[in-house]
Amino acid sequence: MKQWEVVIGIETHAQLSTRSKIFSGSSTAFGAEPNVQASAVDIALPGVLPVLNKQAVECAIRFGLAVGATVAPKSVFARKNYFYPDLPKGYQISQFELPVVVGGQLTIQLGDLEKTVNLTRAHLEEDAGKSLHEDFQGKSGIDLNRAGTPLLEIVTEPDMRSSAEAVAYAKALHALVRWIGICDGNMQEGSFRCDANVSVRPVGQKEFGTRREIKNLNSFRFMQQAIDYEVQWQIATIEDGGRIEQATVLFDPDSGETRAMRSKEDAHDYRYFPDPDLLPLIIDSEWIERARAAMPELPVAKRDRFMADFALSVYDASALTGSLEVADFFEATLAVCGQTNAKICANWVTVDLAARLNKESREIGESPVSAAMLGGLIARIADSTISNNIAKKVFEALWNGEEKSADDVIEKQGLKQITDTGAIEKLIDDVLAANAGMVAEFKAGKEKAFNALVGQAMKATKGKANPQQVNDLLRAKLGA
Amino acid sequence: MITHGLKALAQALAGKRISSVELTQLYLDRIDRLNPVINAFITVDAGKSLAQARAADALLAAGKGGLLTGIPLAQKDIFCAKGWRTTCGSKMLGNFISPYDATVIAKFDAAGAVNLGKTNMDEFAMGSSNETSFFGPVKNPWDITRVPGGSSGGSAAAVAALLAPAATGTDTGGSIRQPAALCNLTGLKPTYGVVSRYGMIAFASSLDQAGPMARSAEDCALLLNTMAGFDERDSTSLDRPTEDYSAQLNATAGDKPLAGLKIGLPKEFFGADERTGCSPDVMQLVEAALAEYRKLGAETVEISLPNMKRSVAAYYVIAPAEASSNLSRFDGVRYGYRAAEYSDLNDMYSKSRAQGFGAEVKRRILIGAYVLSHGYYDAYYLQAQRIRRLIANDFVAAFKACDVIMGPTSPSTAFKLGEKAADPVQMYLSDIYTIAVNLAGLPGMSIPCGMASGLPAGLQLIGDYFGEAKLLNVAHRYQQVTGWHLQHADGLA
Fold this sequence. Notes:
By secondary structure, chain A is α+β, with helices and mostly antiparallel strands. Chain A contains 15 helices and 17 strands. Chain B starts with 5 loop residues before the first helix and ends in a 12-residue tail after the last helix.
């Protein structure tokens, strides 16, 4: 049996978070009634002309800087000509020979392994409208609200070697575009859509196999399923003596299969040429420097700083820099509880808080427990006012909005940890007196009985006694 | 009154010798009477025009009028005008009522001018005789068996037949200058980017430029004052200080007002071999005009535009390429003509476009799609762009040796209706002197320079970039000492 190598390149359409469209002043807000956000320019009335939205260019510059690419000093908008009812002008304004962003890299994490995916280019273009094939008296409807929405199309080299790498790349890119604030990443609304170019070749062969392009993958799970299906289909086809024809395919999530949409033979000749209605896009170094000054600290830099400054593991630091919101929340929490508690803080943010948010499908920005509240809570754990177990109760109370701060919860609910040795000794005496049977079992060599006695002591204080002190004093009393 | 220039009309309006309503009605009556013969207008809407005239009269009464307030102007049907049917000479837009104003229209509205109607034109401005219009050919008022030129033939004929005091035109390869020459008008195509293209239905975006067509350089200057200016809705419009073109008409004066002016005569127009491309009677009138210029103090120098001969070929690659894409929006989906019966989407596209476009438009769409297609792009489109740069460089070099270039506007006077309609290449060659100016983006003018067998001939003036004021000044000086521009077709009464 031959060994096969999978080769994947990804093209992503990221919808840019600009207020207005790329070549008109219409709003880009999602979900309006059909065609109410379509101006004379968007519906391509005779005589209208495009005017480039500088905000969209800013987004492209930010992206270029974030991936270490070259921001082209001169790029050119070109017309991609084809007929479709939701393409009002009969051409899409895109960039062809001279894109705005050239090259760049994105680092992806696969378990403990890091891999660099090289980017070919990223270019600005306008989105088309939508064809609505629901029944309009047997006809199709056209909604041009989306027509002219700015997109950044980001193209990789064929650098990925598995569906897992492809998904890791897509997730890293998704996190990055949100991190730098150029795309809301909403995959359901189509703000972030990927096409995967997939081919296979025998291990060791230099030439690439013939690729098929899977269009419009709008979830990471579908991407994984679609690529896995496509790869096994291509291998099976070749092993059965068939040949792969270059084609565009669609993934059907219901059947889990990909099916050809059009073959190379009926591929369009888009007759690209520079759009004479738009001047070349000139980006001078001043513009780039202004954009650079406004850039947030990037994920990898922040991760490395978290490791260096707070002695966090690469695992914790990566988890905390998965999104800018999480990283900001962590830093705000740390500002309250103090840097020396970075490890406890990282655990709370990435484990306890994350689990609670996940349970209610909320984003960190919607957490009822603010960074200030969580910082206050961690400070009380650190100074032994409460134990970890009590902290979970306090957290729950804060989550449910019972009090405004951890201190209020501790105060009002009397949760302060008992650390007074005298009080704990008295408590232990009472427990020993009431549980003579357990004491006897312990003395007979049953270590389990000791844990049961600790449990009784904690229960008697509703968990407020310092567990370490209870342990130590109990051992002393039992002479163990 | 109907032979008055714009300045005289403005004075008559300001002096209350006539109201805008009366003046507008005067022209509407002539249009009623003569348009059935000339076919200069596609759409006339007396109600709309008179409403504008009444508003203008109110402004004039309040003493708030400007120089164009109350003056009726004919608008080429390539400009979108709110509430007006805007057809671009095509069946495709035969039912299209524009919901918005082109910048040019909005500027004339703001100046208080009256829109007298939408003038006939070659379909989507593709033609040099006005015979490709879906709404029928326009007749030349000097001889109604002849063409008025094109594509702004309706505007030219309207002004020549005294159906309007002045009009707008657009010029992609000569469409203002050639009909101006054939109808004895003064027409100006400004530097590319001086007049906004917003709302002007695109033929070839990198070449199209709107300009005035009138009876004198003086009138053109007044109209250009309103038309020119930066427009943020047109990315190719140029942000530069506005000029007062009227004020510069008399920039030079005295006995030899053009003393020191160097007129470049391209040997590609005037050389012993090359001049045979022009009919001898037109060339003779051009030579006579040059003699007049020498009397005004100008000197003539020979220059060379070596790539001029490649301009028609380059133009007929670039213009159709852009047009094939510009006209893709006319697909029957959102507005305009849609075939009555079709079986599916592709059938709807092909039937709507097959039925909605005329033969010349289809020819150019096919040429354009071909030269842009995979495998031919480099050989045609890119090569044509290289030639375009060479032509522009020729002009830049030439303007180091002269201030203005002169020559014929058109190789002949008005030809017979139908004479060239069957031979596209012969038709394309009628723009041989004008096309290079568009490829280079320069300003160009045509001014009347005499009559050959009762038909007008035009002298072309080509200026350096932003040389509109200079061109108007040079044209005005000639018109101060000659009377060709004052002649009008009187066979129509």
